[in-house]
Amino acid sequence: MSNFEKKFGKYAVKNLSLVLILCYAAGFLIQNVNSVFLEFLTLNPYQILHGQIWRLVTWVLVPPSGNNLFTMLIMLLFYYSIGTSLERTWGVYRYNLYLFTGMVFTVVGSFAATGAAYLFFGETVGAAPVAALYFNAAAKAFSTYYINMSIFLAYAATFPEAQVLLMFIIPIKVKWLGIVYAGMLVLEFFQGVGEPVLNLFYRTAIAASLLNFLLFWFRSKNRMHLSPKQMKRRQQFKQEVRRNPKITRHKCAVCGQSEEDDPTLEFRFCSKCNGNYEYCQHHLFTHEHVQ
Question: What is the pTM of this model?
């Protein structure tokens, strides 16, 4: 646990997946009732710099285009399920950090893309009102689609052996779907959508989601893998703690110390050990892995 988490972890938003799902649903409703109004909510740095600062937040309401009601409901249920699983596994703070970091990358990237558009395509973009038309169209690149994709990639990396039913029939491990979706994003990045300015914004949105995932992956890859068996053991342990309050919640498998012996100790499970083994910060990286 970092010092930042100790200070600000209590402010993390619980059940953040539900908040995102509600934003997704609200955006879908706006899109079908008054699609013109939705254009006033997009992440458009050109308009933000002209006073419409609410766009810094409201862009998370913008849903992916082309979804019908049935597809939208399936998406809501699926991403709520995997998002909740990640929040329970990582903890509320780390899940919040992952999503908000991706959003910050997206906002920063949108302003960088706007500057690059003027730098490299200044003659095409031109001045107002032509510039406003270009950036209104380009801002649609930033939607909940890439947020959802980053959540799914994180889920696939955390639970690679978990299975889902593809088309409700074919069982397939999540890691293979994660590889396919990552490949689709990379392909979409290089193919673009035709118009240079639009390409720039779409590529920025894709890069922001992938950068967030890659940053998280390289910082946490040694701790993030959990198999279904490990998840089951962890849930069983939590149930035993609830049934018997005298059982310590944490206990180092090497030195035997618990939070009752030293409240300042930090504990982590080791994903490389074959079993439900937990270690304090003094032995997390120095113990021999149980095979």
Answer: 0.70
